[in-house]
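Review form for a predicted model. The reviewer records the input and the model, then writes brief findings.
Reviewer: anonymous (R2)
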Amino acid sequence: MMIKQLVLAALSATLLGGVAHAAPPPSDSGGHGAEAPAQNQRRRSLTSSTDFVPLAPLTATLQADYRLRGILQIEAGLEIPDSRLRARAETMMPRLRNAYVTQLSIYAGANYRYGELPDADRISTMLQRATDDVLGQEGARVLIGMIVIHDR
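Model under review:
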């Protein structure tokens, strides 16, 4: 009986609280509320170093027995001491992200067995090679902050 009351109280709080989180009315510019924050404002800074370029989380699907089993998620960044190369990397970020997602998909499909620990060294090597290929030179170092497997 007590569990039912707790569930009903939680459901009521969720439904009543949902009204307070409604979207603001559309603005005159045709959008929904204020402009989206700039990409740099949404990222959390892991370091105060100006050489560090954070990457948005990278993901790849994990399959086993022809079924989706989970998601491989990686948080990483680039350490680039050369300011010219750093500027080049920031302008080429869409191409870098494409190369990273491609390499993670290859890793998830060919190198990873579902249920095992991910090989951080292998992933790092693959991402580093992709970085050097896209930028056309060495000098940007891939730093992996976290590798997570989200089971389905």
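Findings: Residues 50-151 form a domain with the Tetrahydropterin Synthase; Chain A fold (CATH 3.30.479.30).
Further findings: The helical segments are 2-19, 39-42, 83-91, 93-111, 120-135.
Recommendation: see findings above.
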